Amino acid sequence: MQLSVNGRRREVAYPDELLVWVLRDELGLTGTHYGCGIGACGSCTVLLDGQVARACLTPARAAAGREVTTVEGLAHGEQLHPVQRAFLENPLQCGWCLPGHLMSAAALLERTPNPTDAQIKEAAGVNLCRCGGYNAIRRAVARAAELKREDG
Amino acid sequence: MKPVTRRRVLIGLGSGAGLLVVGVPLALNAGRPAIVDYIEENGTGPQDAPRNPDLWFEVTPAGVTFFVPKIEMGQGIHTALAQIAAEELEVTPEQLTVRQADTARGYAGGTMFTFGSTSVKALYRPLREAAATLRELLREEAARQLGVPATRLTAAGGSFFVAGSRERIGYAQVVAGKQGEWVIPEATPALKARREFKRIGRAMPRTDFRDKVLGTATYGYDARLPGMLFGAVARPPRFGARLVSASAGAAGRQPGVVRVVIDAGAGFAGVVARTRTQARAALPSLDLRWEGGTTASSADLDAQIQAGSGSVLRRRGNVRAALSGGTVVQGEYRTPLAAHAHLEPLAALADVKAGGRIEVWASTQYPQMVIDDLRDVFGKDREVLVHPTQLGGGFGRKAGQHAALEAARLSAAVGKPVHVGWTREEDLQHAFYRPPTHHVLRGSVDPDGRLRGVEQFTAGGDIIWGQTGIPEFVRDALGFDPGGLLGQFMPYDFPAYRVVNRREALPVPTGYWRGLGVLPNTFALESFMDELAHAAGADPLAFRLQHLGSGEDGRRLRGVLERAAQAAGWGTPLPAGRARGVACCLDLGTASALVAEVSVQEGRVQVHRVTVAVDPGLVINPDGARLQAQGSVMMALSSALHEELTIQDGRVVESNFDRYRLLPMRDAPPVEVLLVESGDEPQGMGEPVMGPAAAAVANAVFTLTGERLRTLPLRPGQG
């Protein structure tokens, strides 16, 4: 089976396994993190056709025919995505939850370019941060919206 | 700690000209006398390339690289230490490349062990001395190359500038042009005074974060080698159960399985497969018989943890007399068993060469422990190389790290690298935990509102003893666990005080959890201080201030209390249905005070705003310190509002985050951090601020509802 990941066609040998393990262990895209396996922590959040999905609940096969975007696919070459730049300005601590927050925020800003604080909180949803960086996450997402508007 | 003297600096010239390596063995603990002996016997010099320094710098024509002995688990330690080094080295952050030391060249031992908020505190001086020594070596050589006196050279931005001229020479150029031997200065160069600091105390970008936003940072779970396989390991059905018989059963015939590895004597049964999913799926097909173990439940643990007797840790004045008068107050507090719940579960990759070197990439706070574990199994003389990776949280749990040993056992059996990454269920159900505690407090206040005395009984499960091989009779003779002492003593000035502490070995593994005793103890003591204040009819803030002593501790606590109270608007009106609570804490040299503003809605505590003032002596990186404080407050709130592990029939009931709830974004209040600097030496920053949040919230709930919540997690209306 083939998957389209970050704009590249990739051959997948274990299509019945969960997307999180196929991405990480088979395709070497370890930026998508495993945290719980039940969709309760958000560390494995990826985009499927631009919509947030938990890679720990999604069989790889279910992503066939859809565009999978992972944290490794956010930047365009050297040009970081606004959410990446915003989190560089507002770093978290360990960063294990970060790819999930980056992907959730990227999806949020696509549909809501000027999110309110309540919408930012809502979009973070189940995405946990055990290091307690929630204040920084709110600042970063708000800042990412600014940066994205500046980018045009 | 010994200063960095000539005899304690190692210098190496590497493989030819153009490389200068300066390394420093710190002798932070007694666990490494051989290296120190070696230096003292042999002296130093170019013939002694640094073999096992704790930290070292490499200067090449490409720049300066700083090898850091401490492990980055999000606390920003690489950044803070780089900042300290850059200060004396006179380089910009961009000119300093930071790399994690590994155990091949860095000494693992105590220095790499990253724990107890000790990293900055312990390395602050020796790191500056090492960096200054390196700078002076370069200065002498620069002077020689330029043909000017060294005193005419000013170091800045990785270059030396010649006074009164436009001439300059970069460090790299100095090293490239070096001929002959480097000569170490006889004395340690003078260190900068605080007023001269250009980098310490200012914001600096995190050294680890660009890789993290790109998704390319390597954590233990991410470690990869060509040809690697994946492993999974069978876990006992209850704590303490022994594997009495084991065979492969049908596991070897499951899809993708490469090898079943059984060492029943060691209680080990695991599977190696082509994918992680296959390895895990094959585990239930192993034919395993477990016996014994505990059948304890939470109620049994609570029954075992009973304050009321034990070792007398502090005694002043006559408590009996103090409690025989005035208004007597009694409070009994409990905190539950809790998990670390670091979001990256335990993970390691091991590559065991037959009869040869064992190489490990692991999420570990304690590389030496990994080495010891591996040598216990594979032989005392076995060469072991540990690469500490980035850690996706640690909080003490990754000080005990057996995934590396599991991966190594499996790798040895298949002759290929094997990765073992725990599931969340394994991580929550087969860990060690923050032990439950019980606190019984009695105190008395005079009619004029003065605290007469306090009698304090505490009991808790083992913390440090729970994770070390100290025999039970030694622990029993001592009577208390040193970890339980953090936050154990009321920092107030009053005539009579008696503290009695009791430790218990529980049938469930217990150990280090961020801050050790500081959260449970501060919850109990600062809640009780609030009860005393109300009994005295006093404002809780004023009552605390009134009972602080005139010494340094009292002065620093007063400073943070006043700062937090002012910023939080203590005493000013709040909207209906809200109240404030205050608590403070002095731990590991750092004073903190916290004001929480809460409401209670449908039996749930909502924290709307937190103001915390923190005095860690000297702040290295204000951004990092704020993140540490905010993170501590959030983790403490999570503990105060949600977290409790239940034991049933010798097992942990909560297997994942659907049952073991952590503070989510929607419940996370704004946390304002006010940094107070009252000293010239940095103190602990990773854990002390775990102390005050739980009590401040409980105190606010009391002010709001009149209900005193004495058990964590806080559940209004449920006792």
Automatic annotation (TrEMBL), chain A:
Outline the extent of the 2Fe-2S ferredoxin-type domain.
Answer: 1-74
Provide this UniProt record's keywords sorted from A to Z: 2Fe-2S, Iron, Iron-sulfur, Metal-binding, Oxidoreductase
- Please report the name of this protein according to its UniProt entry: (2Fe-2S)-binding protein
- The domain of life is Bacteria
Oxidoreductase: present as a keyword of the record? yes
Any one GO MF annotation of this record: 2 iron, 2 sulfur cluster binding
Write down the Pfam families for this protein, in alphabetical order: Fer2, Fer2_2
* Alphabetized InterPro entries for the sequence: 2Fe-2S-bd, 2Fe-2S-bd_dom_sf, 2Fe-2S_ferredoxin-like_sf, 2Fe-2S_ferredoxin-type, 2Fe2S_fd_BS, Beta-grasp_dom_sf, Diverse_Oxidoreductases
UniProtKB/TrEMBL annotation, chain B:
Q: Check the record and name the Gene3D superfamilies matching this protein.
A: Aldehyde oxidase/xanthine dehydrogenase, a/b hammerhead (3.90.1170.50), Aldehyde oxidase/xanthine dehydrogenase, molybdopterin binding domain (3.30.365.10)
Q: What positions does the domain Aldehyde oxidase/xanthine dehydrogenase a/b hammerhead occupy?
A: 214-294
Q: Which GO terms describe its molecular function?
A: oxidoreductase activity
Which SUPFAM superfamilies does this one have? Molybdenum cofactor-binding domain
Which regions span the lipid bilayer? Answer: none
Protein name stated in the entry: Aldehyde oxidase/xanthine dehydrogenase a/b hammerhead domain-containing protein
- The parts of the chain that form a coiled coil are none
Species assigned in the record: Deinococcus indicus
Q: Which Pfam families match?
A: MoCoBD_1 (PF02738), MoCoBD_2 (PF20256)
